[in-house]
Amino acid sequence: MTRVGLYFASVQFLFVTCWTVYVIYLPQLAAQAGIEKKWVIYILMADQAIFTLMDFSIGVAADRVGRTLGRLGRLLVVLTAVSCAAFLLLPLVAPGGSPLPFLALIAVWAATSSALRAPPMMMLGKYVPTPGVPWVATLMLVGMGVAGAIAPYLTVSLRSLDPRLPFALSSIALIAAVSGMLWAEKHLAASAAAPPAAPTPRKPLNADVVLFFAAAALLGLGFQVHFALNSAPLYLRFAKPAELDHLMPAFWVGFNLLIFVACRANQRFGGAAVMASGAVLGALASSLAASAGSLELLLVLQFLAGGAWAAVLVSAMTAAIAIGHFGREGAATGGLFALLALATFARMALVAAQLNQDPGISALLVTLPGLAWAAAGLLLAWLALRARAAAAAAG
Questions:
Q1: Regarding predicted confidence, which is higher, 58 or 182?
Q2: Residue 346 DSSP symbol
Q3: Is residue 197 over pLDDT 60?
Q4: Which of 49, 121, 80 is nearest to 341 (CA)?
Protein backbone atom coordinates (compact mmCIF):
# COMPACT_ATOMS: atom_id res chain seq x y z
CA MET A 1 0.00 0.00 0.00
CA THR A 2 2.84 2.39 0.79
CA ARG A 3 4.28 2.02 -2.72
CA VAL A 4 0.94 2.88 -4.29
CA GLY A 5 0.47 5.76 -1.85
CA LEU A 6 3.85 7.22 -2.84
CA TYR A 7 2.93 6.77 -6.50
CA PHE A 8 -0.36 8.62 -6.00
CA ALA A 9 1.58 11.33 -4.12
CA SER A 10 3.84 11.86 -7.15
CA VAL A 11 0.82 12.09 -9.46
CA GLN A 12 -0.90 14.66 -7.24
CA PHE A 13 2.34 16.63 -6.89
CA LEU A 14 2.68 16.88 -10.67
CA PHE A 15 -1.02 17.68 -11.14
CA VAL A 16 -0.92 20.57 -8.64
CA THR A 17 2.36 21.76 -10.15
CA CYS A 18 0.68 21.91 -13.57
CA TRP A 19 -2.05 24.07 -12.05
CA THR A 20 0.60 26.36 -10.50
CA VAL A 21 2.37 26.73 -13.85
CA TYR A 22 -0.98 27.51 -15.48
CA VAL A 23 -1.85 30.22 -12.96
CA ILE A 24 1.62 31.80 -13.25
CA TYR A 25 1.46 32.16 -17.02
CA LEU A 26 -2.28 32.61 -17.63
CA PRO A 27 -2.23 36.46 -17.64
CA GLN A 28 0.66 36.49 -20.14
CA LEU A 29 -0.86 33.83 -22.39
CA ALA A 30 -4.32 35.41 -22.24
CA ALA A 31 -2.83 38.72 -23.37
CA GLN A 32 -1.13 36.96 -26.30
CA ALA A 33 -4.47 35.39 -27.22
CA GLY A 34 -6.12 38.82 -27.30
CA ILE A 35 -7.89 38.57 -23.93
CA GLU A 36 -7.73 41.57 -21.61
CA LYS A 37 -6.24 41.11 -18.16
CA LYS A 38 -9.56 41.86 -16.42
CA TRP A 39 -10.99 38.60 -17.79
CA VAL A 40 -8.30 36.35 -16.30
CA ILE A 41 -10.10 36.00 -12.95
CA TYR A 42 -13.26 34.95 -14.80
CA ILE A 43 -11.32 32.30 -16.72
CA LEU A 44 -10.06 30.93 -13.40
CA MET A 45 -13.62 30.96 -12.06
CA ALA A 46 -14.79 29.05 -15.14
CA ASP A 47 -12.08 26.47 -14.42
CA GLN A 48 -13.44 25.95 -10.93
CA ALA A 49 -17.00 25.71 -12.24
CA ILE A 50 -15.84 22.98 -14.64
CA PHE A 51 -14.02 21.22 -11.80
CA THR A 52 -17.20 21.36 -9.71
CA LEU A 53 -19.25 19.68 -12.43
CA MET A 54 -16.63 17.22 -13.64
CA ASP A 55 -15.29 16.05 -10.27
CA PHE A 56 -18.64 14.54 -9.36
CA SER A 57 -19.43 13.34 -12.90
CA ILE A 58 -16.09 11.60 -13.35
CA GLY A 59 -16.38 10.16 -9.84
CA VAL A 60 -19.70 8.57 -10.79
CA ALA A 61 -18.22 7.31 -14.06
CA ALA A 62 -15.26 5.85 -12.17
CA ASP A 63 -17.65 3.82 -9.99
CA ARG A 64 -19.20 2.28 -13.10
CA VAL A 65 -15.99 1.70 -15.04
CA GLY A 66 -14.10 0.46 -11.99
CA ARG A 67 -16.33 -2.61 -11.66
CA THR A 68 -14.08 -4.28 -14.24
CA LEU A 69 -10.42 -4.58 -13.27
CA GLY A 70 -8.10 -2.54 -15.46
CA ARG A 71 -10.73 -0.38 -17.16
CA LEU A 72 -10.39 2.52 -14.73
CA GLY A 73 -6.61 2.66 -15.04
CA ARG A 74 -6.87 2.76 -18.84
CA LEU A 75 -9.56 5.46 -18.69
CA LEU A 76 -7.39 7.65 -16.45
CA VAL A 77 -4.41 7.30 -18.78
CA VAL A 78 -6.51 8.27 -21.82
CA LEU A 79 -8.16 11.26 -20.11
CA THR A 80 -4.81 12.46 -18.75
CA ALA A 81 -3.24 12.15 -22.20
CA VAL A 82 -5.99 14.40 -23.59
CA SER A 83 -5.54 16.79 -20.66
CA CYS A 84 -1.76 16.99 -21.10
CA ALA A 85 -2.09 17.50 -24.86
CA ALA A 86 -4.45 20.44 -24.31
CA PHE A 87 -2.16 21.83 -21.61
CA LEU A 88 0.91 21.48 -23.84
CA LEU A 89 -0.81 23.35 -26.68
CA LEU A 90 -1.82 26.39 -24.60
CA PRO A 91 1.46 28.35 -24.97
CA LEU A 92 1.64 27.33 -28.64
CA VAL A 93 -1.88 28.51 -29.54
CA ALA A 94 -1.93 31.72 -27.46
CA PRO A 95 0.50 33.74 -29.65
CA GLY A 96 -1.90 33.33 -32.56
CA GLY A 97 -4.05 36.07 -31.05
CA SER A 98 -7.32 34.16 -31.31
CA PRO A 99 -9.18 33.74 -27.99
CA LEU A 100 -11.62 30.96 -29.00
CA PRO A 101 -9.08 28.14 -29.59
CA PHE A 102 -7.22 29.21 -26.46
CA LEU A 103 -10.34 29.12 -24.30
CA ALA A 104 -11.45 25.81 -25.85
CA LEU A 105 -8.12 24.22 -24.88
CA ILE A 106 -8.50 25.52 -21.33
CA ALA A 107 -11.98 23.99 -21.11
CA VAL A 108 -10.72 20.62 -22.39
CA TRP A 109 -7.79 20.69 -19.97
CA ALA A 110 -9.97 21.58 -16.98
CA ALA A 111 -12.61 18.97 -17.78
CA THR A 112 -10.22 16.08 -18.34
CA SER A 113 -7.82 16.91 -15.50
CA SER A 114 -10.62 16.13 -13.04
CA ALA A 115 -9.81 12.48 -13.75
CA LEU A 116 -6.87 12.77 -11.35
CA ARG A 117 -8.91 13.85 -8.34
CA ALA A 118 -11.75 11.49 -7.36
CA PRO A 119 -10.89 8.28 -9.31
CA PRO A 120 -7.62 7.55 -7.43
CA MET A 121 -9.52 7.94 -4.16
CA MET A 122 -12.14 5.56 -5.54
CA MET A 123 -9.38 2.98 -6.10
CA LEU A 124 -8.32 3.31 -2.48
CA GLY A 125 -11.85 2.82 -1.21
CA LYS A 126 -12.43 -0.18 -3.44
CA TYR A 127 -9.27 -2.15 -2.69
CA VAL A 128 -7.53 -0.88 0.47
CA PRO A 129 -8.73 -2.37 3.79
CA THR A 130 -10.50 0.25 5.92
CA PRO A 131 -7.71 0.57 8.55
CA GLY A 132 -5.17 1.33 5.80
CA VAL A 133 -7.17 4.02 3.99
CA PRO A 134 -5.97 6.96 6.17
CA TRP A 135 -2.32 6.06 5.55
CA VAL A 136 -2.59 5.85 1.76
CA ALA A 137 -4.78 8.97 1.66
CA THR A 138 -2.16 10.76 3.77
CA LEU A 139 0.61 9.94 1.32
CA MET A 140 -1.55 11.10 -1.57
CA LEU A 141 -2.33 14.41 0.15
CA VAL A 142 1.34 14.99 0.98
CA GLY A 143 1.94 15.21 -2.77
CA MET A 144 -0.56 18.07 -2.93
CA GLY A 145 0.92 19.70 0.17
CA VAL A 146 4.49 19.65 -1.13
CA ALA A 147 3.32 21.17 -4.42
CA GLY A 148 1.51 23.88 -2.45
CA ALA A 149 4.64 24.60 -0.42
CA ILE A 150 6.89 25.11 -3.45
CA ALA A 151 4.33 27.17 -5.41
CA PRO A 152 5.77 30.56 -4.31
CA TYR A 153 9.27 29.46 -5.31
CA LEU A 154 8.01 28.27 -8.69
CA THR A 155 6.40 31.65 -9.21
CA VAL A 156 9.74 33.39 -8.69
CA SER A 157 11.77 30.85 -10.66
CA LEU A 158 9.53 30.55 -13.72
CA ARG A 159 8.47 34.16 -14.12
CA SER A 160 11.19 35.00 -16.67
CA LEU A 161 11.14 31.71 -18.62
CA ASP A 162 9.49 31.05 -21.95
CA PRO A 163 6.18 29.36 -20.97
CA ARG A 164 6.60 26.64 -23.59
CA LEU A 165 9.35 24.97 -21.56
CA PRO A 166 7.56 24.60 -18.17
CA PHE A 167 4.30 23.66 -19.91
CA ALA A 168 6.09 20.95 -21.90
CA LEU A 169 8.09 19.59 -18.95
CA SER A 170 5.12 19.47 -16.57
CA SER A 171 2.86 17.86 -19.20
CA ILE A 172 5.41 15.19 -20.12
CA ALA A 173 6.18 14.44 -16.47
CA LEU A 174 2.50 14.10 -15.60
CA ILE A 175 1.56 11.78 -18.44
CA ALA A 176 4.68 9.69 -17.75
CA ALA A 177 3.61 9.35 -14.12
CA VAL A 178 -0.03 8.58 -14.91
CA SER A 179 1.02 5.85 -17.33
CA GLY A 180 1.61 3.73 -14.22
CA MET A 181 -2.05 3.99 -13.14
CA LEU A 182 -2.89 0.56 -14.59
CA TRP A 183 -0.06 -0.92 -12.49
CA ALA A 184 -1.44 0.84 -9.39
CA GLU A 185 -4.95 -0.52 -9.96
CA LYS A 186 -3.72 -4.09 -10.50
CA HIS A 187 -1.32 -3.87 -7.56
CA LEU A 188 -4.09 -2.70 -5.23
CA ALA A 189 -6.40 -5.43 -6.49
CA ALA A 190 -3.74 -8.11 -6.04
CA SER A 191 -2.87 -6.99 -2.50
CA ALA A 192 -6.48 -6.65 -1.35
CA ALA A 193 -7.26 -8.97 1.54
CA ALA A 194 -10.56 -10.00 -0.05
CA PRO A 195 -12.33 -9.42 -3.37
CA PRO A 196 -14.18 -6.08 -3.47
CA ALA A 197 -17.75 -6.36 -2.35
CA ALA A 198 -20.54 -5.94 -4.85
CA PRO A 199 -22.12 -2.48 -4.98
CA THR A 200 -24.82 -2.02 -2.39
CA PRO A 201 -28.33 -0.99 -3.46
CA ARG A 202 -28.57 2.77 -3.89
CA LYS A 203 -29.99 4.49 -0.81
CA PRO A 204 -31.26 8.04 -0.49
CA LEU A 205 -28.91 10.47 1.22
CA ASN A 206 -29.66 10.68 4.92
CA ALA A 207 -29.49 13.86 6.96
CA ASP A 208 -26.12 13.00 8.54
CA VAL A 209 -24.45 12.63 5.15
CA VAL A 210 -25.89 15.93 3.95
CA LEU A 211 -24.68 17.66 7.12
CA PHE A 212 -21.21 16.13 6.71
CA PHE A 213 -20.89 17.58 3.22
CA ALA A 214 -22.25 20.91 4.47
CA ALA A 215 -19.50 20.93 7.10
CA ALA A 216 -16.93 20.10 4.41
CA ALA A 217 -18.15 23.06 2.34
CA LEU A 218 -17.76 25.38 5.34
CA LEU A 219 -14.27 24.06 5.95
CA GLY A 220 -13.31 24.53 2.31
CA LEU A 221 -14.56 28.12 2.34
CA GLY A 222 -12.69 28.81 5.59
CA PHE A 223 -9.47 27.45 4.11
CA GLN A 224 -9.81 29.52 0.93
CA VAL A 225 -10.41 32.78 2.79
CA HIS A 226 -7.74 32.13 5.42
CA PHE A 227 -4.92 31.10 3.12
CA ALA A 228 -5.66 32.85 -0.18
CA LEU A 229 -7.15 36.14 1.08
CA ASN A 230 -6.03 36.71 4.66
CA SER A 231 -2.53 35.24 4.96
CA ALA A 232 -0.62 37.76 2.86
CA PRO A 233 -2.15 40.85 4.58
CA LEU A 234 -1.43 39.29 7.97
CA TYR A 235 2.22 38.76 7.07
CA LEU A 236 2.53 42.26 5.62
CA ARG A 237 1.93 43.70 9.10
CA PHE A 238 5.42 42.47 10.02
CA ALA A 239 7.23 41.78 6.74
CA LYS A 240 7.95 43.32 3.36
CA PRO A 241 6.17 42.14 0.19
CA ALA A 242 9.40 40.59 -1.13
CA GLU A 243 9.48 38.28 1.91
CA LEU A 244 6.07 36.73 1.28
CA ASP A 245 7.53 34.00 -0.96
CA HIS A 246 9.46 32.69 2.05
CA LEU A 247 6.65 33.12 4.60
CA MET A 248 3.59 31.75 2.81
CA PRO A 249 4.85 28.12 2.76
CA ALA A 250 4.69 28.00 6.60
CA PHE A 251 1.07 26.84 6.27
CA TRP A 252 2.06 23.98 3.97
CA VAL A 253 5.02 23.00 6.13
CA GLY A 254 2.55 22.49 8.97
CA PHE A 255 0.27 20.59 6.61
CA ASN A 256 3.00 18.21 5.42
CA LEU A 257 4.45 17.51 8.88
CA LEU A 258 1.33 17.31 11.02
CA ILE A 259 -0.65 15.24 8.51
CA PHE A 260 1.21 12.16 9.76
CA VAL A 261 0.06 12.92 13.30
CA ALA A 262 -3.46 13.34 11.95
CA CYS A 263 -3.19 9.99 10.17
CA ARG A 264 -2.29 8.14 13.37
CA ALA A 265 -5.04 9.95 15.25
CA ASN A 266 -7.47 8.92 12.49
CA GLN A 267 -6.56 5.28 12.90
CA ARG A 268 -6.91 5.46 16.68
CA PHE A 269 -9.85 7.77 17.32
CA GLY A 270 -11.79 7.70 14.06
CA GLY A 271 -12.15 10.19 11.25
CA ALA A 272 -15.14 12.14 12.58
CA ALA A 273 -13.44 13.01 15.89
CA VAL A 274 -10.18 14.01 14.18
CA MET A 275 -11.98 16.08 11.54
CA ALA A 276 -13.93 17.91 14.24
CA SER A 277 -10.75 18.48 16.26
CA GLY A 278 -8.92 19.77 13.18
CA ALA A 279 -11.77 22.19 12.47
CA VAL A 280 -11.67 23.56 16.02
CA LEU A 281 -7.86 23.85 15.97
CA GLY A 282 -8.07 25.64 12.62
CA ALA A 283 -10.67 28.04 14.01
CA LEU A 284 -8.44 28.89 16.97
CA ALA A 285 -5.29 29.27 14.88
CA SER A 286 -7.02 31.46 12.29
CA SER A 287 -8.67 33.66 14.91
CA LEU A 288 -5.46 34.12 16.90
CA ALA A 289 -3.47 34.81 13.73
CA ALA A 290 -5.67 37.84 13.07
CA SER A 291 -4.40 39.44 16.29
CA ALA A 292 -0.86 37.98 16.45
CA GLY A 293 1.58 40.46 17.96
CA SER A 294 4.74 39.27 16.21
CA LEU A 295 5.91 37.56 13.06
CA GLU A 296 7.21 34.60 15.07
CA LEU A 297 3.81 34.00 16.67
CA LEU A 298 2.07 34.39 13.32
CA LEU A 299 4.35 31.75 11.77
CA VAL A 300 3.56 29.31 14.58
CA LEU A 301 -0.17 29.89 14.14
CA GLN A 302 0.07 29.44 10.38
CA PHE A 303 1.97 26.20 10.96
CA LEU A 304 -0.82 25.00 13.26
CA ALA A 305 -3.51 26.13 10.81
CA GLY A 306 -1.80 24.06 8.12
CA GLY A 307 -1.76 21.06 10.43
CA ALA A 308 -5.43 21.59 11.20
CA TRP A 309 -6.26 21.66 7.49
CA ALA A 310 -4.28 18.42 7.07
CA ALA A 311 -6.33 16.77 9.82
CA VAL A 312 -9.54 17.99 8.19
CA LEU A 313 -8.60 16.89 4.70
CA VAL A 314 -7.30 13.39 5.47
CA SER A 315 -10.34 12.77 7.69
CA ALA A 316 -12.73 14.12 5.07
CA MET A 317 -11.23 11.90 2.37
CA THR A 318 -11.44 8.85 4.64
CA ALA A 319 -15.01 9.69 5.64
CA ALA A 320 -16.09 10.24 2.03
CA ILE A 321 -14.71 6.82 1.07
CA ALA A 322 -16.59 5.28 4.00
CA ILE A 323 -19.81 7.02 2.93
CA GLY A 324 -19.49 5.59 -0.58
CA HIS A 325 -18.44 2.09 0.52
CA PHE A 326 -19.18 -0.21 -1.37
CA GLY A 327 -19.58 0.79 -5.00
CA ARG A 328 -20.05 4.58 -4.76
CA GLU A 329 -16.62 5.72 -3.52
CA GLY A 330 -16.06 7.74 -6.67
CA ALA A 331 -19.35 9.63 -6.33
CA ALA A 332 -18.70 10.41 -2.66
CA THR A 333 -15.11 11.57 -3.09
CA GLY A 334 -16.04 13.37 -6.32
CA GLY A 335 -18.74 15.22 -4.39
CA LEU A 336 -16.17 16.25 -1.79
CA PHE A 337 -13.74 17.54 -4.44
CA ALA A 338 -16.62 19.35 -6.14
CA LEU A 339 -17.45 21.19 -2.91
CA LEU A 340 -13.81 22.19 -2.47
CA ALA A 341 -13.77 23.52 -6.04
CA LEU A 342 -16.99 25.41 -5.31
CA ALA A 343 -15.33 27.02 -2.27
CA THR A 344 -12.46 28.13 -4.52
CA PHE A 345 -15.01 29.55 -6.97
CA ALA A 346 -16.66 31.53 -4.15
CA ARG A 347 -13.31 33.00 -3.07
CA MET A 348 -12.50 34.01 -6.65
CA ALA A 349 -15.95 35.55 -7.03
CA LEU A 350 -15.21 37.75 -4.01
CA VAL A 351 -12.01 38.91 -5.66
CA ALA A 352 -13.67 39.42 -9.06
CA ALA A 353 -16.33 41.62 -7.45
CA GLN A 354 -13.55 43.40 -5.49
CA LEU A 355 -15.51 42.85 -2.29
CA ASN A 356 -12.27 42.03 -0.48
CA GLN A 357 -11.23 45.66 -1.11
CA ASP A 358 -14.25 47.02 0.75
CA PRO A 359 -13.20 47.94 4.33
CA GLY A 360 -16.33 46.49 5.88
CA ILE A 361 -16.14 43.22 3.92
CA SER A 362 -12.39 42.86 4.48
CA ALA A 363 -12.93 43.19 8.23
CA LEU A 364 -15.55 40.44 8.04
CA LEU A 365 -13.21 38.23 6.02
CA VAL A 366 -10.66 38.31 8.84
CA THR A 367 -13.14 36.58 11.15
CA LEU A 368 -14.87 34.40 8.54
CA PRO A 369 -12.42 31.43 8.58
CA GLY A 370 -12.60 31.11 12.36
CA LEU A 371 -16.39 31.27 12.35
CA ALA A 372 -16.75 28.83 9.42
CA TRP A 373 -14.32 26.31 10.91
CA ALA A 374 -15.84 26.59 14.39
CA ALA A 375 -19.35 26.03 13.03
CA ALA A 376 -18.15 23.04 11.01
CA GLY A 377 -16.30 21.66 14.05
CA LEU A 378 -19.40 21.84 16.23
CA LEU A 379 -21.50 20.21 13.52
CA LEU A 380 -18.97 17.41 13.04
CA ALA A 381 -18.68 16.84 16.80
CA TRP A 382 -22.45 16.50 17.00
CA LEU A 383 -22.44 14.02 14.12
CA ALA A 384 -19.63 12.02 15.80
CA LEU A 385 -21.60 11.83 19.04
CA ARG A 386 -24.72 10.72 17.15
CA ALA A 387 -22.74 8.01 15.36
CA ARG A 388 -21.21 6.80 18.63
CA ALA A 389 -24.61 6.70 20.32
CA ALA A 390 -26.10 4.77 17.38
CA ALA A 391 -23.21 2.28 17.47
CA ALA A 392 -23.64 1.80 21.21
CA ALA A 393 -27.38 1.23 20.80
CA ALA A 394 -26.78 -1.28 17.99
CA GLY A 395 -24.19 -3.09 20.12
A1: 58
A2: H
A3: no
A4: 49
Query: Is 133 in the same domain as 191?
Result: yes
Burial zone of 362 (CB within 10 Å; 0-12 exposed, 13-18 middle, 19+ buried): middle
The DSSP line for 302-322 is HHHHHHHHHHHHHHHHHHHHH
Q: Measured at the alpha carbon of residue 311, what is the angle toward residues 307 and 315, in degrees to the nearest 5? A: 165
Q: Can you give the pTM of this predicted structure?
A: 0.92
Q: Is residue 395 part of a domain?
A: no
Q: Which of 151, 181, 196 lies at the terminal end of a domain, its last residue?
A: 196
Same domain, 140 and 251: no
Domain boundary among 157, 174, 196: 196
The neighbour count for residue 8, using CB atoms within 10 Å, is 25
One domain, residues 296 and 360: yes
Residue partners of 14: CB distance under 8 A and separation at least 6: 147, 170, 173, 174, 177
Cα torsion through 203, 209, 214, 220, rounded to 10? -100
Are 188 and 252 in contact, with CB atoms under 8 Å apart?
A: no
Range of the domain at 375: 203-390
Residue 77 within any structural domain of the chain: yes
What is the tens place of the pLDDT at every residue in 2-45?
888 889 899 999 999 999 999 999 999 999 999 999 999 999 99
What's the pLDDT at 192? 67
How many Cα atoms sit within 13 Å of 108 on the Cβ side?
A: 18
